[in-house]
Design brief:
Elements lengths: L1 H22 L2 E14 L13 E2 L4 E8 L2 E20 L8 E23 L5 E20 L6 E22 L4 E10 L2 E9 L10 E7 L4 E11 L1
Antiparallel strand pairs: 1-2, 1-3, 1-11, 3-4, 4-5, 5-6, 6-7, 7-8, 7-9, 8-11, 9-10
C-alpha cells in the first residue's frame, strides 16, 4: 500500500513538473512589420495632416517569449535617398543655375519588452503592453556642382533616441503563423548631432557637436505585420 502511494505521488510530481516545464517553454518568433508614423509634435487639431505622415520601409523583428513576458529586437531596413535642388549662380542675371544634392542614408533598431495582460480562452488572441527604445541614425552629404564637378560641402550625422510605450494585439492563425497590430506613443526624443563643413581650399571647419532633448517631439506610430513562431 505504501509502495502504491509513493508511486502515485511520484507520478503526480513528475506530471506536475513536466506540465510546468512545458508551460515555461520559451517561444521564438520572427516578425515582419510595415510601420506607419504620425508626428504630432507641431500638429494643430483640425489642420491638414500633410507632411506629418511617414512610412519608412519594413521592420524585421526577433521575439523571445517565456510565460507572459516577452522581449523583441527589431531591425529597420536601411534607407538611401537623394534630393536635388537648383541654385542660381551669383551674378548670373537669373540665367544660370547649378545643381546641389543632399544624399541621405538611414539605419534604425529597436528594443522592447512587454507583459501579456490578456489572452482569450482559446489562446488565439493575445494583448501585450510594455516599453521600448528606438535608435535611428541618419547620415547626410551636401554635394555642390557649382564648378561642374561634385564637391562635398558638408556632412551631417544625427543620432535619435526615442523611448516609447506600446500595446500590441496578436492573433494566432494557427500554431505557427499569426498577425500583429501594434500602437506606440513616444513623448519626446533625444538628438545627438554632428556637422562638418568643408571648403575648396582644402580646409574644414571643426565639427559642431550638440545634444538636443526635444520636449515637443510627440510621435504616434503603428505597425501591421505577420509573425512565424518556431
Amino acid at each position: 500500500m505504501k509502495t502504491r502511494i509513493l508511486i502515485t505521488l511520484s507520478a503526480m510530481i513528475f506530471l506536475s513538473t513536466a506540465l510546468s516545464a512545458q508551460n515555461a517553454r520559451t517561444h521564438y518568433s520572427m516578425k515582419a512589420y510595415i510601420p506607419i508614423q504620425f508626428n504630432a509634435g507641431n500638429y494643430q487639431f483640425g489642420t491638414s495632416t500633410r507632411g506629418h505622415w511617414n512610412i519608412s520601409g519594413i521592420e524585421l523583428g526577433f521575439n523571445i517569449k517565456k510565460k507572459r513576458f516577452e522581449q523583441e529586437f527589431i531591425l529597420k531596413t536601411p534607407t538611401l535617398n537623394s534630393t536635388t535642388y537648383y541654385k542660381e549662380r551669383n551674378g548670373s542675371g537669373n540665367t544660370g543655375y547649378y545643381r546641389e544634392d543632399i544624399i541621405n542614408t538611414g539605419f534604425g533598431i529597436r528594443y522592447q519588452g512587454a507583459y501579456e495582460i490578456w489572452r482569450s480562452k482559446q489562446e488565439r488572441v493575445h494583448v501585450v503592453s510594455g516599453l521600448g527604445l528606438s535608435f535611428n541614425s541618419n547620415f547626410s552629404k551636401f554635394v555642390s556642382y557649382e564648378t561642374g564637378n561634385g564637391f562635398i560641402v558638408a556632412k551631417f550625422q544625427f543620432l535619435v533616441f526615442s523611448p516609447y510605450i506600446y500595446t500590441s494585439l496578436n492573433y494566432a492563425i494557427n500554431a505557427h503563423w499569426g498577425m500583429d497590430f501594434t500602437l506606440m506613443y513616444g513623448p519626446k526624443a533625444g538628438i545627438y548631432s554632428r556637422v562638418n563643413n568643408f571648403y575648396r581650399n582644402g580646409t574644414n571647419q571643426p565639427e559642431s557637436i550638440s545634444w538636443i532633448s526635444d520636449e515637443m517631439n510627440r510621435t504616434i506610430s503603428s505597425r501591421l505585420g505577420v509573425s512565424y513562431t518556431f
